[in-house]
Amino acid sequence: MLGCFCPCHGCIDNAIHTFAGVGLRNACAGIMRRQGHLEQTGSAKITSGYNLPARYVIHTVGPIIADAVQEKDRRALRACYLSSMALAEQYELESVAFCCISTGEFHFPNHLAAEIAVETVREYQKSSNLKVVFNVFKDLDRQIYEELLGERQ
Predict the structure, then answer these.
(1) Distance, first Cα to last Cα, the chain
(2) CA angle (104 as vertex; 102, 108 as ends), nearest 5
(3) What is the DSSP string of the chain?
(4) 131 CB contacts (<8 Å, ≥6 apart)?
């Protein structure tokens, strides 16, 4: 929730907090202070988007992979998507964009993470009109999502 503390680090947390501005970090610090503990893996919180071209930022903590991916890691990643989509609907948002949760510094394997993301979103959308965008940074991730979503030509 508090963003990355490594200056110039290439993680998504740093990018979001850098471009949103100090207001986002202050809002997150306030949430953390009020709840009195670290954010649980798989849960989600929402803040204003501050200086971002988005009204809101939905924050979720993905699982950190140290060795092999365990079933608990799969469940935790699925929970990230589910809690984020539920929060988006609670705020009556029409759409939500997801980065590749946990695949960077948290080392979740890209293809497996994408499979879980796509499967979870497809299942959720069976009872929801929420639009979901998978926003990727790497060409590898774009290829994986195109393959999984049937958009490769």
Answers:
(1) 38
(2) 45
(3) -----STT--SHHHHHHHHH-HHHHHHHHHHHHHHTSPPPTT-EEEEE-TTSSSSEEEEE-PPPPSSSPPHHHHHHHHHHHHHHHHHHHHTT-SEEEE--TTSSTT---HHHHHHHHHHHHHHHHTT---EEEE--SSHHHHHHHHHHTT---
(4) 94, 95, 96
Question: d(Cα 51, Cα 55) in Å, to the nearest integer?
Answer: 9
List own/partner pairs for 87-92 with CB under 8 A and 24 or more apart.
Answer: 87/44, 87/45, 87/46, 87/58, 88/58, 88/130, 89/128, 89/130, 91/46, 91/56
Structure tokens, 141: 């991730």
Which residue in the block uniquely carries the two structure tokens 């610090």? 29
- Distance between CA atoms of 41 and 95, rounded to whole angstroms? 23
Rounded CA separation 70/53 (Å): 36
The parts of the chain modelled with pLDDT lower than 50 are: 153
Q: Tell which residue, 102, 93, 136, 87, has the closest CA to residue 13.
A: 102
Residue type at 11 in one-letter notation: C
pTM across the whole model: 0.93
